[in-house]
Amino acid sequence: MNEAAAFQALTVETLPARLGSVEALASRIGADSSRWKVAEVGDGNLNLVFIVTGEKAAAIVKQALPYVRLVGESWPLPLKRSFFEYHALTRQAARAGAGSVPEIFHFDKGQSLIVMEYLTPHVILRRALIDGRMLPNIAADLGLFMARTLFRGSDLSMTARARKEDLALFADNVELCDITENLVFTDPYYEATLNRHTSPQLDALVAELRADRDLKVEAQKLKHMFAANAETLVHGDLHSGSIMVTDGDTRVIDPEFAFYGPMAFDVGMLLANFWMSFFSQSGHEANGERETMRAYLLGVVVETWAVFRAEFSHLWRTERTGMLYDRRLFEDRGDPLGSEQALDRVLHAIWVDMLGFAGVEVHRRILGLAHNADFETIADENVRATCEAKALKFGRHICVNRHRIHGLDEINLLAVRIEKGTVS
Ligand code: SR1
Ligand code: MG
Predict the structure, then answer these.
(1) Model pTM?
(2) Which residue has the least CA distance to atom 5 on ligand 1?
(3) Tell me, what's the pLDDT at 286?
(4) Each residue of 281-306: b (16+ CB within 10 Å) or e?
(5) What CATH superfamily is the domain 15-117?
(6) Ligand 1 pocket: which of 183, 185, 357, 371 to mutate (most atoms <8 Å of CB)?
(7) CATH, domain range 123-420
(8) Which residues contact 321 (CB under 8 A, 6 or more apart)?
């Protein structure tokens, strides 16, 4: 498509004629566009997503809309987010391996569309966890993905010039950052117009949290860090709806929120989504006993963090070529222990901040605009509210006490006790 043409949203009917001449698509799926079958399958909050099936194969066409799909045209949103998604996908493929994200076949900036690999028989991780599926590889795959993208996108690895140029490129992703700044860090903690929660069951707890000064101060400290700590290129929206899986394959999708932010943000958001899945399981118990699933999820948290730490440490020792923690100060002077001490400090800071980001992510999915299917698919509102209340209390604890929590054993034990009702 012509980059200069005015933006037009695709439809199921117009897509074959409009994209029939895109060689990168036609050569993969089949040249006769009159025989393409098109289905719009977007169930996210922002974009159109089409599966286009030709005689030979299928591909995905993802197109941004000039507004937030979840809310409608009253909330305009720039089309340039597909530009950031495209550039983030290329960097993630280079840093974490081509098999960690979908392959891109074509990008049209003017039409804000990306043609990419159709992942099949993959399903969205969140859906798999709701169904009680225990994916064997997600912790290792995602721990590696985060360590590699976060380390290699930072001043620990890149040259100062390369990172600053990239920082400048992603700095324009203002509107998507603004969504997170409001929806994650501020709106849940007051009566923002678009908020909703399971009512009246959660009303008293919600009022308590919104009156909680310590919690609100922590949330604002985290927001400050999110906005001002441009450490590395983060995915920016790494929840279980941004991951597609089979038993043997894990792909991270949808990095349109990518920007230079704190290392701990992606890690916290991801672990929060595993913990929310944990607290939602009793709402899905009708579909099978979920005790094993709960244990599996806490194990995934432990393994994801362990793999992240191990790979980050490995990269620290073998790929620390950037300007930070200069080897001339440590290893080159025969002081490898100095570098290990610095590594411990860096990992500790990520740990503490990760807990804070996890806590606010849990809150915003229950109190804010964008809820998640883990809880939303629990039809019985009383059961749903019980699950959500447990998650809210857990989120508050890890956020406010993050500087005093020493390990995942302590946190997972708390999760089990809250789930069993032995602590309130
Ligand atoms: C208005 S957009 C709401 C949420 O959807 C995206 O997936 C992000 O998580 C965002 O916060
Ligand atoms: Mg998304």
Answers:
(1) 0.97
(2) 45
(3) 84
(4) bbbbeeeeebeebbebbbebbbbbbe
(5) Phosphorylase Kinase; domain 1 (3.30.200.20)
(6) 183
(7) 3.90.1200.10
(8) 157
